[in-house]
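Extended Data, record Globin domain-containing protein
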Amino acid sequence: MAITRAQQQLLQQSLEQLIVIPAALDDFYAALIEFAPHTATLFSTERTQHSQRLLIAFQAIIKGLEQPEKLVPLLQRLAQRHLDYGVTTADFTPFGNAWLYVLKAQLGDTWSPAHRDAWVALLRLIATVMKQQMQKQLTTDVQ
């Protein structure tokens, strides 16, 4: 599913809105751990660092939508790092669900079905590329 220019604008706009809400990322991690309790062990460093990295990654990914030839390698590198952290392909669904939950909860009246569709498209793109890379890496490691 291609992400349209209008969807890119919705993604950027909603991410900018979320960034200025201090509790938003704390709520995200709480939701993620509620949806997938085993993920609590993945965060060995300060959550503030994770939050900053998460926002930087989303900003780079959204910007990368304009240059797919650079986006795929970025997502592949993220996949490798997350595999090293202990993330599994099964963790993408609770991550996406927690992210959508927090966006909807934090953005309130500004959240729309169009925002949801844009984020679902982006999260699917991210998950598809990263899962493929993780599977490839796991297969290579076994050989």
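Summary. The mean pLDDT is 91.
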